[in-house]
Amino acid sequence: MSSGRKVVAAVVQMRSGEDVARNLDVAEGLVRDAAKSGAAFVALPECMVFLKSEGERAPESQGVDGTWARRFSGLARELKITLLMGSFPEATKEPGHTHNTTLLFSPGGDRLAVYRKMHLFDIDLPGMEHLKESRVTTAGKVVVVADAGFAKLGLSICYDLRFPELYREQSKRGAEVLLVPSAFTERTGRDHWEILLRARAIENLCYVMAPAQYGKHGPNRASYGHAMIVDPWGSIVAEVADGTGFATATLDFERVQRLRAELPALQNRRL
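The structure corresponding to this sequence follows.
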């Protein structure tokens, strides 16, 4: 339920694999369960449609008006919730490449925003050299802040989390919630996931919602999990510690404005 300047929000945690139909069914079931629990805003994780490893070509891709998008647009309309459709491989004109794209739907099923992942996960850590997202993914170029009615939402995906300038720009545009659907690797997540999420919340005095993938997706990829919601003071207010499920928290936007007035770091910026 939502009222005034508050909304009950949920972050979903799941383990996607190569079976697209199964992944979609699991995602839909979790959204339904979260809505049944009272959530008016539900966020799904990165790669909800397909996940094997970074740089692995998805078996298919679709546009933002494809059957996958229509399914979750219809789900948002049926349940009368705001819904973040994690991310999926969006077809592009570049041969062999897709965008890693997330969509935001209104309770009426209208598409409020499209965001294409800007920062691609290409790393050279020993033992993880195979993780090269740019092999099959084309980076997006546009910063997106969407008005969901109850608040303005800044959209991002996973590796974007390491680039604070993106979120500073979103907060300058009025974002009160930062959305970070992710499939954070198990190895980096153990040391960095919680710290980065809490830092982004503290820096921008806003909520951070981070739905997540967990567990093994294939022989060369495992995700850390720990889907969570962090409040504007940097406290974890909801978390899925392990396994498939969801966690909910009430987002209080009057508190966001109060904290921003009491600790005016955003107004004290020099750069």
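Residues 90 and 99 are 5 Å apart (CA to CA).
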